[in-house]
Fold these 2 entries.
Entry 1:
Amino acid sequence: MKWFKRILIAVFSLALLGIIAIIGAYFYVLPDLPDVNTLKTVKLQTPLKIYSSDGKLISQFGEKRRIPLQLSDVPKPLLQAFIATEDSRFYEHNGVDPIGVLRAALVMITTGQKRQGASTITMQVARNFFLTRDKKFIRKIKEIFIALHIEQLLTKDEILELYVNRIYLGQRAYGVGAAAQVYYGKDVKDLTLAEMAVIAGLPKAPSTVNPITSPERAKARRNVVLRRMLDVGYINQNDYQVAAAAPITAKYHGAEIDLYAPYISEMARDYMVQKYGEEEAYTGGYNVYTTINSDLQQKAQKALRNNVYAYDERHGYRGPVSVLWTDSEPAPDKLVETLKQTAPVQELQPAAVIKVEDKQAEVLLGNGHTVTIPWEGLNWARSFINDRRQGPSPKSAADVVKVGEQIWVRPMGDSWQLSQLPQVASAMVSLDPHDGAIRTLVGGFSFTQSQYNRVVQAKRQLGSNIKPFLYATALEKGYTLATLINNAPINKPDLSQGTAWRPKNSPDVYGGPTRLRVGLAQSINVMAVRTLRYIGLDAAIDKLSQFGFDPADLNRNESLALGSPSVTPLQVVTAFSSFANGGQLLEPYFIARVDDAYGRTIERADPALACDTMPAATVANVQTTAMAPESTITSLDRPEDNPVAVTVAASDLPYTCDNPQARHAKRVISKQIAFLITDALKSVIWGGGDWNHGTAWNGTAWRAARVVKRHDIAGKTGTTNESRDTWFSGFNPSLVTTAWVGFDDHSRELGRVAWNPNGAKDQISGAESGAKTAGPAWNEFMHDALEGTPEIPMTPPAGIVSVRIDLATGKLSRKNDYTSDFEYFIQGTEPKEYASDATEDSNLFLDSGKTSENLFN
């Protein structure tokens, strides 16, 4: 019996020592144990997502990809796969599985190797949330105590939900929701049993058994998972055999971007980082809804790129990227590998010329396909000499390309075209004139080429886009659209710049006294300078500042009249919005709302509304969103054009002009003056006069009338000295758009081009200008953007009258023929005198004959 007592004493002593050791270990690690209560309010690290106004995903930012799911959203077989593989007794133990520990210990004792882990799902949750993956004994002790504590605080289902959302599954995917997207491009509910088993097998070694990088190992691991599911009774033999025979089909699926709009997504990302800090912005699960309309954005990007291609190609072909061979052609696979080293840019793809015939060329693409470039895709390629000169038109394909050259090509419908990386830069931005929401924003030709956002960062000389604002000031001071301004050379120079500055028209043609409407429509320079002298420099600068331009950018000399100030495209489109909405200055903004990871709106826009002119139909369609108290939203605060936070109060009332808490945009000009300038800007597009009697005249943007084909559009061209900057800004009552084209190098001119009589697609000739260079982008975009929408008639506001005037003198006319026409006036400013019969009969000045395109550059 003594030996039995000794055994009991030994067992008791060992048990006591074990308990003491456990207690000692607990108190030893106690100071380092985290507060497990935080699991009750845990916020999973979820990436930042940027959306368009209509819910299209624009971009995603963050190291970790995660799609948080509720346990009820996870298919039962997937949960069973994890449990069968990682912790078959999950619902039976209290966080630590003694049987599992003993089993792992026996395997290690008998084999000398650690072939079976003892970590439960709860222990893995403890490690993933609170500990590192260091293989140290003390870490394992902490893991056990944390797991025991977790089991006291959370239910089994809550623990399992944390596990399936937190577990790392390779390829930067955290949780089963992200893994389903990354590996299969599916929602988790759409996974097959075989695919679920692949994912469930990943926690053991996400890199080693990864189905993308190691498909054979992934298949072996998947079948282990399936065998465990069969052994515990989760699946039957038939399910097992079908799933085990399935091939590994996983491939990498990036974030499912619905709309490529990198410039606006970068603006939204920067705002979130500035406000919340990088860590919180990238992991807080915020969903940012911008004001961008996905359909309009795609049309703006297409119009800008088409216009850049057209400009670049009409100035000539700069030659191949490189010469890949001159003697023997490399093997096709080697050639493809070489081409793959050059990444595509937008539609442009690298290609190697492998055959040249008389009127076509055959090229090999980087994807291994061979395509033919027909003569229509080659005949544009006159050689580039400089920005002002191009070589003769090519006669055959051999004049353009040679075998062995690496070139750029781009698809053109069902065909292909020789192309090249454009050197010219461009930008386009559109606003809703009722509330300042930015509907489109394209900061350049290619974000991969240049992340410089020209819409908000590039300050460029405004050119003749400044003239409508000067004439609006003149109307405030007593001018009318019928006021005669002398279109004659200015002999008294401006000496404020230190040298004698004598502005000239472009072209250098003068027609004597000319009505203000015609002067604006034909962008006559000397008339703008005389108008500036009439209103005064101080008054002009003050009014331009009211339109949102920074006074620091406004030159205090007469060059102001011709657009010497440097401004951003966003400032320009904002200022033009004042004409479209009846005279109110908007505050452009690009974030409509921000939702947190739980779908709660924590920020929303509180824009200043142009309420006086907001049609009922527009008001009814304004999106409304509940807002948390003391929310903030970003807007662009002129003149700096930098995002700022504006605190707004919570309100359950509709976000319309009927809301007494709505902010109203500041009025800068009267409705009447906004109407008159808008009507004059229609003449920029539609011109005036009588074609039957030879008195018709074009505005500088006559091409817009031919392309857009609507009568509710108005706009203004702009060209600076030596054509370094070209603009077109215009609008209809629902959309305002500004397009700019120039070189980022301020010293480089846009140059000129000679007409190509041999079938070039773009037969623009002469010096580049606002109408020719920026105008086509505006024309294409506005045509596409407004297509299918009804024209919106412009009704004169109260206080506007229309009277018939004599076109030569601007006075009242008794005649009803081509020498007279109706003109709008603010009531009380209309002419009181009639033109004499002698004056009307002599027809001294009718702006006759000014129809040549070359007169309106």
Entry 2:
Amino acid sequence: MEETTRKQIVLGILAHVDSGKTTLSEAMLYRAGAIRKLGRVDHKDAFLDTDALEKARGITIFSKQALLTAGRTDITLLDTPGHVDFSTETERTLQVLDYAVLVVSATDGVQSHTETLWRLLRRYRVPTFVFVNKTDLPGLRREELLAQLNRRLGEGFVDFGAAQPARDEALALCDEQLMEKQLEAGQLTDADIVPAVARRHVFPCWFGAALRLDGVDEFLAGLDRFTRPAPALDAFGARVFKVSQDEQGARLTWLRVTGGELKVKAQLTGEVDGTPWAEKANQLRLYSGAKYTLAERIGPGQVCAVTGLTQARPGEGLGAERDSDLPVLEPVLSYQVLLPEGADVHAALGQLHRLEEEEPQLHVVWNETLGEIHVQLMGEVQLEVLRSLLAQRFGLNVKFGPGGILYKETITEPMEGVGHYEPLRHYAEVHLLLEPLPRGSGLQFAADCREEVLDKNWQRLVLTHLEEKQHVGVLTGAPLTDMKITLIAGRAHLKHTEGGDFRQATYRAVRQGLMLAKCQLLEPWYAFRLEVPAENIGRAMTDIQRMEGSFDPPESGEDTAVLTGFAPVAAMRSYPMEVVSYTRGRGRVSLTLDGYRPCHNAQEVIEASGYEPEHDLDNPADSVFCAHGAGFVVPWSEVRSHMHVESGWGKAKPARPEAPAAPQRRAAAYRATLEEDAELLKIFERTYGPIKRDPLAAFRPVQKRERPDFAAEQWTLAPEYLLVDGYNIIFAWDELNALAKESLDIARHKLMDILCNYQGYQKCNLILVFDAYRVPGSPGSIEQYHNIHVVYTKEAETADMFIEHVTHEIGKNRRVRVATSDGMEQIIILGHGALRVSARMFHEEVQNVEKQIRQLVQGEV
């Protein structure tokens, strides 16, 4: 066969424990000529179970690699753990696969962990082949197994060992394109079927007995015929999926090259916790079982172990490859590590962290207050493996305390959380909307806040702070899940806000919202399959009910009965030993994590935890405000009465009244503005201290005072002065903002024309202010444009600085209003005795004036 026609794929093999997965791997390697002797798991000489722990327990604990060839296809085979305790290892491996083989036992059919594996394959969209093993033993018939696969896992499972007409007929029902090809040509070719398999519309099935080498040759031929290589990136890219160490203790970083080429001694770069790293790939090892060969270069579709990389982590993307998604499966049990007397706790912590890099399902937690190490795991088998690894690697003989359940918390109703952080010379306020999500959604973050309310840079910072921390609930201090947190409002100070201020305000907003919301405690649940002698089924059903579980109607056979259902992990984790006891070794139960559900004994758990959210100093819900030059703490329950921003969430919009006559409308507008200004005045005084002069001085005639850099005689005295922040208004009004995207100059002149009409009708003295740095060649100038004044500020002077300055002067003896979308500017001008008009209110005023002008014109006509 010509070299150019060869293809390279990465194939993973998955199964429920004891389905014969490693036996099938062994048979494939043997029939492909990759190994000369056929090993067996029960003889402890399987080619891929190389670790002493695996040989002792007879299960696969660590994912392994082997190389074989089927026809013109070079296959990198990754054998993954089958036990539920090591599911996270399997999940990491899925993210580098081109195809997967799901092994199903003919004696057991689809089991609970099979369904978990199928959900993971569907999540990562891995095209899948099925090998139904152990067909030489008593069990379900071929038709029954196919029906069960299609019923339990979904449609698309087709027997590829059937005669071609029957196979093609079944394939045509799985995919519309195959249906069209079948109707046109009368039969399907391999070229027709390959894309349908890649699209996950078809899942080819073969039946056999791997231990007897039955059906293995046909299966290998099918892998050659119905697979295609994955498209490669143009630039170099690779994905890390595993970290381990060799027999000499050297760190191995396992990766799959997804594009370009990786050469030995090439420098690779990445980032760990925000810190960049750069290291050389000293060796490129192609492993097959325990042995390896060294390669000079690795191309797309190949998997290798790299030495020399000490910083890369599982899930990290290198080069042009993106990082992997976070694992769906998480530990559900927690144990305290009990060190031998005299052991160095910090040295032990470092050793556990080294194992944590290698084991994605192991989480190590250091409780600094109590000086305790806790490990979070999937189950007790993993606990035994961890104990053995610590003894083998580091000579550390540890014990573990009683295991505890890892609970989570969520909310059951939407709630707004407010966080304010304002010690002296700091300022940030954040409003977050907390919403419940469906079970299994995790935490999601978003922003729904206008830029004139909070600048985009501050919004991005808030989202960063939301994502950087594991937020905990207020019932037991457990991690939050199944929630969406959305930024809906906020405020920064022009001079005093720093990045750390938004971190504090964001964290406090989350906690304040949780304190107000209805919270719910969640616990992990198992999906179980319980097989017991027929005479014990009554006892089994009673046990499940006692454990607050649920089950489907039992399936009864001649001698045994099978019960499937769901139950809390807390109640069921010790049940397998109980089953062995009351069935005298004839019963067995398989457990698979099914995610989190409402806790069956929530009140009992909450009381036992003793958690007091108001005393959690690491997660405060209270806010910090400032008055009289000093910060003070406001309890979470009173924050809403002190907050500076009104998000509007939870408040119904009032019905729009009929338009009143012009004088009434203006009076109503002023009354509304005065009421809002009174509220803002309180905010101003709480923030900056009491105003030294009477804020109503603007309405009383006082002696005029001049200032050197502002000649008040430029302005004709008028009943009212209106200062308009030009660019703020342009970007706040939708129609002008759209024009500004095409031409800022056109938008500016459009606003000037609109305000000329407005001024002519209102007879106010209108001053329109623009930042001069946006307008070439006109800094520091004041122009008369028809009947309004247009000011272009000086260099290094912004429009809000000019408006604040002018308001301070003319607000002493004239009635002044300022129209702007800048919230901080609105507060500051209150201190100078001016009225403020938001961009939205001013837009409504202008529209009303234009409407009245049209009515007048039509009346005259």
